[in-house]
Write a structure and sequence with these properties.
By secondary structure, the protein is an alpha+beta fold. Helices cover 47% and strands 16% of the residues.
Length: 664
């Protein structure tokens, strides 16, 4: 008598309903839902700065030139992704949707691989619940849409773990398991240095778990991995000699991992409660009770902890490298561990958890995080579009445009059909001096000045624009970018509308006492200038610090996204005056931020009045309780001078400037 088809491994069950109850319909739903969340508005997804950097490094003529110039000396990652993009772009072009496509596919497939890993290590319930969060959280969705080493690295890591698990814990020694482990470990090593670290940790972990009969093929796999990486070692040593990307990436704060957990759970109390509820339900209501499961739980904890601790310590002691992105390779094991305490449960229970998780995570993704707004707004595209609209509305001859915008990205978009008249466009960069920028602004002969940035820049340039063009007509704010339009004349004279972004304003003109300003006493005398100014501060050469301003930060801002602009007029009374305008934020005895501008950078008239500018962008400051704002003049060179019209102006900033990765 023949056995029923459903009893044979790999056959289709006789009763489809029982097959679906086995969890298969749920994982299909999760994968398709995760794919939809990644592909919705896919053709609107913009390229980021890092993606543009990688794209522009595919333009070399030969493979050797690509490695020498596009990887070794201009990147801090191994070569695999850059080499892949080199050929991918040559074959299919440089459109954003073309560039991103393989990485989106890898991100989608990884959802299923998380399920398989959880199933192999524990049970299908663990795999399903872990896959839910990989499918629906903003963190993996965001990095699936980046043509960078992150989604593809998570895919390589999960494939490596799949074959590693099969090689070490299956009942037979199959060549395919060792070959798969070897291949994907090599790809991890060539993808990113954090995924390489994960491959090393995985390989070393196996030495403590491998059975004697499997030891030789396992050691051979390790040897092949090392040999396969040797051609890359010269590049790696050179890149490590440069230590990291600390020139632009700051050291992580002590609260880095707390902020990371808040980010991955959408900064939402509902998400925190959901994850806690699922974890505790597995522990106390549906506990698995399998002692052997602790082997994999310890593995998951070690695999999560070692890269996290190593990245943090390296960033503190050597050079900053730690970002949310580099943790994505071990990210799935957080959920595999949390939900490993569940035993295999019934289909209705699985459906209930799936529906609740999908509802809460997608709702917070769409409405709380506003993912489909901020992730799909491109400052690069928007600045060009708004500039074109401004030139059309007011006349291109009437608007000078100052933009902090990479020229190669501008060329990319103009080739794609974006229109902008370049005649009155003025580029500036972080290396553009204050005096050069000021001269360019003062030399503008137009009624309007537009100011846009899509690469972070010191807000002092915005203060310089406002000095000459004081009336705000338009303002646009996006993720990592802004655009302003200012007018020289009042709106009733130009026909434009007037916007106000003023939060706080205070001016010390030395004619009367002003709240927050320290009194002028002793040898700091008030001096009549005879220039129609009234009173001005006179500081002689014997004193370093003039009376300044001190106020609680909360009293001069309305949120943590404000700009603070400081300016003061200085008239040096001797040559080579070394006078600094200083701003500081303190918390108790600790200085959180200290910044200064020197007179020589703003000097236009060595014998007359000159305005020094300084600006602080609060989102770039680590917030601390009870912050106090200070500003004062530091007479470092101890030469006599006059000061007048010392102003503090707080303006509304960009509330969504870091919206993809921070709460707002």
């Amino acid at each position: 008598m023949k056995k029923p088809a459903g009893n044979n491994p790999g056959s289709v069950p006789k009763h489809p309903v029982k097959y679906f109850r086995d969890g298969n319909i749920l994982i299909l739903f999760i994968v398709f839902a995760g794919a939809f969340l990644r592909l919705y508005m896919y053709f609107e997804a913009p390229l980021t700065y890092d993606e543009f950097s990688a794209l522009f490094r595919t333009g070399y003529g030969t493979f050797n030139e690509l490695i020498a110039k596009g990887v070794k000396t201009s990147d801090m990652h191994p070569a695999a992704v850059q080499v892949f993009l080199f050929y991918w772009v040559k074959l299919f072009g440089n459109e954003a949707y073309v560039l991103k496509l393989p990485f989106v596919i890898f991100g989608i497939v990884s959802i299923y691989l998380v399920y398989k890993t959880g199933e192999m290590w524990f049970n299908k319930t663990t795999g399903l619940f872990a896959a839910l969060f990989i499918a629906f959280l903003q963190y993996p969705i965001t990095y699936s849409l980046y043509a960078r080493p992150y989604a593809i690295g998570m895919f390589f890591s999960l494939m490596m773990v799949f074959f590693w698990t099969k090689a070490l814990f299956s009942d037979n020694n199959r060549f395919i398991h060792y070959a798969g482990f070897t291949l994907f470990a090599v790809l991890c090593a060539l993808n990113h240095y954090f995924s390489m670290m994960f491959a090393m940790i995985t390989g070393i972990s196996g030495l403590f778990l491998v059975k004697r009969k499997k030891l030789l093929p396992y050691l051979i796999s390790g040897l092949v991995i090392v040999v396969a990486f040797l051609p890359h070692i010269e590049i790696t040593l050179y890149q490590f000699s440069r230590k990291g990307v600390g020139s632009w990436l700051g050291k992580p704060s002590p609260g880095f991992y707390l902020n990371y957990m808040k980010y991955i759970f959408h900064y939402s109390g509902w998400m925190y409660a959901l994850v806690l509820a699922i974890t505790l339900t597995g522990l106390f209501v549906f506990p698995s009770g399998k002692r052997k499961a602790w082997r994999f739980r310890f593995l998951a904890l070690i695999w999560i902890a070692v890269p996290a601790i190593t990245g943090y310590l390296y960033s503190i002691w050597v050079n900053p490298v730690l970002q949310y992105s580099v943790l994505i390779f071990v990210f799935p094991f957080i959920f595999i561990f949390l939900f490993s305490f569940w035993k295999e449960v019934s289909f209705p229970v699985q459906v209930s958890v799936t529906v609740i998780t999908a509802f809460i995570s997608i709702t917070t993704l769409v409405f709380h995080r506003e993912h489909y707004i901020h992730s799909y707004e491109s400052g690069y595209r928007n600045i060009l579009n708004v500039t074109h609209e401004t030139q059309s509305r007011y006349g291109k001859e009437n608007v000078t445009v100052f933009i902090r915008y990479p020229e190669n990205i501008l060329n990319y978009y103009t080739e794609k059909g974006f229109e902008i008249d370049m005649e009155k466009v003025r580029y500036f960069s972080q290396s553009t001096s204050v005096s050069e920028f000021r001269d360019s602004v003062r030399g503008s002969d137009t009624q309007y000045a537009a100011y846009g940035w899509a690469v972070p820049v010191d807000p002092v340039y915005l203060g310089l624009i406002r000095e000459e063009f004081p009336y705000l007509v338009e303002k646009h704010a996006w993720y990592l970018s802004e655009y302003y339009l200012f007018s020289k004349n009042k709106p009733d004279e130009t026909g434009s509308r007037l916007l106000s972004d003023t939060v706080y304003f205070s001016c010390q003109d030395y004619d009367s006492e002003v709240a927050g300003w320290q009194p002028v006493t002793g040898h700091l005398m008030l001096n009549k200038t005879g220039e129609g100014r009234g009173m001005s501060l006179f500081q002689d050469s014997t004193t370093q610090y003039a009376p300044g301003f001190r106020f609680s930060l909360d009293e001069i801002i309305d949120n943590e996204n404000n700009y603070i602009f400081i300016s003061v007029e200085i008239k040096p009374l001797k040559d080579k005056a070394n006078i600094h305008l200083v701003a500081a934020l303190t918390s108790g005895e600790n200085t959180v931020e200290w910044k200064s501008s020197i007179l020589s950078d703003h000097l236009t008239d060595p014998e007359g009045w000159n305005t020094i500018h300084l600006a602080i962008n609060l989102p770039d400051i680590r917030q601390a309780p009870g912050l106090v704002f200070h500003t004062y003049l530091w007479n470092k060179g101890q030469t006599a001078y006059l000061a007048d019209n010392y102003q503090i102006f707080t303006a509304k900033g960009n509330p969504v400037v870091y919206s993809l990765f921070e709460d707002y």
